[in-house]
Amino acid sequence: MVVNRNKIFVLVLFFSSFGFSQADLGSWNILNFNLKIDSKWNVFMETQLRSLSFYDQFHYYEYKTGATYKIKNKVAVTTGIGSYNTYSEGGNFENPIQNKEIRSWLQLSMKNDLDFVVLEHRYRAEQRFTSNGYRNRFRYRLGAIVPINNKQVVPKTFYVSAWNEIFFTDNEPYFERNRMFIGLGYEFSKQLAVQTGYIHQFDYKINDETGRDFLNIALLYTFDLSNKNEFTPTIQD
After folding, report:
1. Which of 122, 101, 99, 102 is nearest to 110 (CA)?
2. Third-level CATH fold of 5-224
3. 145-167 pLDDT per residue, tens
């Protein structure tokens, strides 16, 4: 597989600059912690804070935790639970609150190595206990990690991260959302990486189609007790 990394880099800059130029660009901030217990088990915690304007009109926060079990080298299952809170638009945590939610999920992840490109397929089934009633949701995400200045993502490596995720429900009209990300990351060490980029989220509602754009910044930290020195730059949501 032949990939021109310079072209990928230019493409990321193009999409990022397009997103950052939007007047209604919001912020999407992520802090992710992973604890690798051994070669099979991983425990994670993650929190997010989002705003509809550029670091203003904060309307959403979440925090969650869970565990991942690696079935074999490229296949893993995850279970998690978290709290998700959405406020009204127009201010910072503006009341009334629109939705308070406790969410659990089951997830299957599979990875493929294509030359220096790592592809990830992620399938998730969510159980959503919301202030507006119980809901099911199903998600599929296809992601790619492409190192720029090394053949693999190792310390002191810049990398491209991109993914697209679709959301479905078991009620009509079934399709709920599409979320796309493209950006750059840098691995400082086997414990620490940072990512930034552009997220576009399209929500489908009958007679009300909406789209949002966000600047995404994520800090990823890994505590590795397994001594495997493995680092995969990924987020849970």
Report:
1. 122
2. Porin (2.40.160)
3. 999 999 899 999 999 999 999 99
- Is the separation of the CB atoms in 139 and 120 below 8 Å? no
SS3 198: strand
Tens of pLDDT, residues 60-104: 999 999 999 999 989 999 999 999 999 999 899 999 999 999 999
Q: How far apart are CA 113 and CA 174, in angstroms?
A: 32
Characterize the bridge pairing of strands 175-187 and 210-224: unpaired
In which residue are the tokens 């590795």 written?
A: 224
For residue 19, pLDDT over 50 is answered with: no
What's CA 68's distance to the chain center, in Å?
A: 16
Cβ-based neighbours of 183, under 8 Å, separated by 6 or more: 12, 16, 160, 161, 162, 195, 196, 197, 198, 216
| Distance from C-alpha of 177 to C-alpha of 163, rounded to nearest angstrom | 14
Helix (H, G, I), strand (E, B) or coil at 116: coil
